[in-house]
Amino acid sequence: MSLLHRLFEDAKKADSENFLSLINRCIAILREEPREGKLDIYGRLVRMQPKGEVIVLGDLHGDLESFMKILEKSRFFEKVESEDLYIVFLGDYGDRGAYSPEVYYVTLRLKEMFPERVILLRGNHEGPKDLLAYPHDLPIYLRRKYGSAFNTIYNSLTELFEAFYLSIIVDERLVMLHGGVPSRAVKIEDLAFALKKHPAETHLEEILWSDPVENLMGVAPSPRGAGKLFGRDVTEKFLKLLNVNVLIRGHEPVNEGFKINHEGKILTLFSRKGAPYYNQSGAYLQIDLSEEIRDGWQLLDYIVKI
User: Fold this and answer.
1) Tens digits of per-residue pLDDT, 79-104?
2) Helical ranges in 44-187 per DSSP H
3) Which of 17, 89, 175, 281 is the most buried (most CB within 10 A)?
4) What is the CATH number of domain 3-305?
5) Structural domain boundaries of the chain?
6) Enzyme catalytic residues
């Protein structure tokens, strides 16, 4: 059995004690990363140099089958030991999918095995209690699998979510986050320290919850009940602030697994498929960061549909 298939079998068989131990080990890894210096970390922001290959996944929402296909098609395990390769998760690993515990398990094992190669971003389904998505059915799936231990596991997972990063900047190339632009950001610290500034300032809420729309200037209330709808002018101002060309985000179900907004300045990825979103395809991105990246249209050549 390959390492890939063994990992997914372990996820299905792991008992509550094993899962809880894995969560706590990953909390320790994430807390130590800023001190170790293997990743360039500023607050909850990760800086990446424009070199090496990156695999970028959007929302998985408990879709274990699509997750396996992505790791298989991208040849992650074959490449990660010998090549300059990273894998980035844009958040929303669980909720809305029956295999949510297993998706978290596999993701955390990847982080444990290849800590400096795996970067975990926070989604709105990993949000703080005052910004948490509803319905939030992760506890139901945990209870179904782990019985009375579910509450202890869930509490450890919420502690883990606090350690996830909020954004990644690839110098002069890209910014990656889960939802949308913090429309009132005026300096990089607003992005890096959005968690500390919450709830006095809206940066965290917009990073986790906002969505781009066309034919809008500025921002408007979101039908989600949190975050904002934001227009192209907001995107352009944000990209200029960070000296990058494209925003890559997840958060939004897309029938084809990806879409472009704001004249190529935003790429949305959605990596799960099927119920309850009923999108036809999931998609992920796999690209060499040493290439000059001008806009999202260019990235379409590097999208893989599943």
Assistant:
1) 998 889 999 999 999 999 999 999 99
2) 64-73, 76-80, 100-113, 138-146, 150-163
3) 89
4) 3.60.21.10
5) 3-305
6) 125
